[in-house]
Design a protein that fits this description.
The complex is a heterodimer of chains A (about 240) and B (about 100).
Chain A (H helix, E strand, L loop, with lengths): L2 E5 L5 E4 L3 E5 L17 E9 L4 E7 L3 E8 L1 E6 L4 E5 L2 E6 L4 E7 L6 E8 L9 E6 L10 E5 L7 E2 L5 E7 L4 E5 L5 E9 L2 E3 L2 E3 L4 E5 L3 E6 L4 E9 L3
Parallel strand pairs in A: 13-14
Antiparallel strand pairs in A: 1-20, 2-3, 3-4, 4-11, 5-10, 6-9, 6-11, 7-8, 7-10, 9-12, 13-15, 15-22, 16-21, 17-20, 17-22, 18-19, 18-21
Chain B lengths: L2 E6 L3 H11 L5 E6 L2 H10 L4 E4 L5 H14 L4 E4 L5 H12 L1
Parallel strand pairs in B: 1-2, 1-3, 3-4
Helix pairs in contact in B: 2-3
Classes of the chains: A mainly beta (about 240), B alpha/beta (about 100).
Chain lengths: ~240, ~100
């Protein structure tokens, strides 16, 4: 029988630093909740708004798979691997921190905010060589379809990471119904509603609500409103 | 009560950042090293509440470190630190010390 955990959007950790307004689905920085530490290997899901021209100066990471998905605006990235790039809505960025990498992230625009999801997964292999990648996705492919945007395989759709995880994004018309098959036995799915209202396995979820489901091989999905947008994170449940 | 935390990691830049982060909270005293020999010397010299294993430590090195440190201080808590920065640090330490 499947298990689930419901995280309503308004129960997330919240930190408003003025230039940065962040909501944390799991314990992060000054937000600590012992029952909100992770969902399997999914350790961080931050929903950030960064003011124009502001951002995070150079800071290091290690042994973490870091995925950034801009929702609005553009984010400028520089790192110790020599990467200098800008990502925007429709792109996905991945950084395998491995043995150590330093990077900065700034709003690429002065006059408007950037909104983004930043997601950290524990890697399946420690101390790998750091790497960076980004990809522009065809957003039309996610209309009434879960578009795969990340996998463990370099030759599969989307970016790849050092973990047996698959991410999919979908944007749906009202009343569209579907079933998502979990990619690997033992994985669970953390479904995060970016916008609109949906029903997943009988649970009604509004904007920024999330449902984690495991011990099952599929989930049922229905969009209750027009332009419902959902991110599915299919991840191993044990490290 | 103040707790003493030792961070061991191979990347000097990350170690500098960890030194700063571990000493930003009043209740923590942070010590950081890049080599296992330094870690063992510190463990011999003073009591520790928690050891964080950071980047670049191989499985074999981790095994040896755990053995050496717990021989010196039986019951010493040793955990993995992920992320290399402030994001996960408080949760890792609070969880380990609870």
């Amino acid at each position: 029988m499947s298990q689930f955990v419901l995280h309503k959007g308004n129960t997330r950790g919240h930190a408003n630093h003025g230039w940065l307004d962040a909501h944390h689905s799991f314990s992060f920085a000054g937000y600590y909740h012992p029952e909100r530490m992770n969902f399997g290997v999914l350790r961080v899901l931050n929903d950030d708004r960064i003011d124009g021209g502001k951002g995070f100066g150079a800071h290091p990471h290690d042994n973490m798979e870091i995925i950034t998905i801009p929702l609005e605006g553009a984010l400028a990235h520089k790192d110790s691997l020599g990467t200098a790039s800008v990502i925007q809505h429709g792109d996905i960025q991945v950084m395998s921190a491995g043995t150590g990498v330093s990077h900065s992230e700034f709003n690429a625009n002065e006059d408007r905010a950037v909104k983004l999801l930043q997601i950290w997964l524990f890697p399946n292999k420690k101390n790998v060589s750091p790497r960076y990648d980004q990809l522009t996705l065809n957003v039309d492919e996610r209309h009434n379809h879960f578009q795969q945007i990340l996998s463990p395989n370099a030759d599969d759709a989307g970016v790849w990471i050092h973990q047996d995880a698959w991410f999919s994004l979908g944007k749906f018309d009202k009343d569209f119904e579907s079933t998502y098959q979990i990619k690997k036995a033992g994985n669970g799915v953390y479904a995060f509603v970016i916008s609109g209202e949906v029903t997943i396995d009988g649970q009604i979820l509004g904007q920024r609500d999330a449902l984690g489901i495991w011990e099952t091989d599929s989930i049922s999905f229905k969009a209750n409103t027009a332009d419902a947008e959902v991110l599915l994170m299919d991840v191993p449940m044990s490290l | 009560m103040k707790v003493t935390i030792l961070y061991i990691g191979r990347d000097p830049e990350i170690t500098v950042v960890m030194q700063r982060l571990l000493n930003t909270r009043e209740e923590w005293t942070g010590l950081t090293v890049c080599t296992d020999a330094e870690a063992v010397a510190i463990c011999e010299a003073q009591p520790l509440d928690l050891v964080l294993l950071g980047n670049g430590i191989t499985e074999d090195e981790e095994h040896e470190l755990r053995k050496a440190l717990t021989n010196l201080r039986p019951g010493l808590k040793i955990i993995q630190h992920y992320g290399g920065g402030s994001g996960l640090l408080y949760g890792e330490i609070a969880g380990a010390l609870q």
